[in-house]
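Most newcomers find our protein records easier to grasp once they have seen one. Nothing more is needed to start thinking about how sequence determines fold. Here is such a record, shown just as it appears in the course material:
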Amino acid sequence: MADIRAFRDAVGGWASGGPGGPAGELAVELGVRTAVLLEGPSDHAAVEALAARHGRNLAAEGVCVVPMGGAMSIGRYAHLLGPPGLGLRLAGLCDENEQSFYHRGLERARAPRRDFFVCAADLEDELIRALGTARVEDIVAAEGDLRAWQTFLRQPAHDGRPRHQQLRRFLGTKKGRKIRYGRLLVDALSPGRVPAPLDDLLASL
């Protein structure tokens, strides 16, 4: 039996120029009603981690989280999955500096913007600010990345930057690190400290 990953893969193939039939058939078979459009896999990991903390199974609710591979893909994905394509309800997160891409892409697809929520810099920055830098550094140490973090801090390019900016940059310096920490940082949040864009997105689904 097909699962939501098959639908996500079919959407990715469609967005890359493949046929749309498989995605449409799976959307009907799986009862997909909402697509959550995110820039990348680290955002995907964070959203699904928060949903799991709340005891929610998004796939069972007809919600598919779709990492697009960058903000400039919003127009393509909104066209395929929104009103001109499969007619799904669209929601998501965007970075403050990428709002113009989202506004234009959603407008062209005739998709409302009400369920898209803006992160001040990006989601990692929001999570670091919510937890505090000392707590994030504790998590880095617990994950066995303390030596890598200390090496990073000794690099002249990062000297003098605010600690939250250093941590944000560090999370993006190794493939897979942002995805892993996306889950870890969400899991470390206390209930009242979930960043507003992430909290509002989950509440909208």
Summary: The radius of gyration is 18 Å. Strands lie at 34-38, 63-67, 89-95, 116-119. Residues 49 and 55 are 10 Å apart (CA to CA).
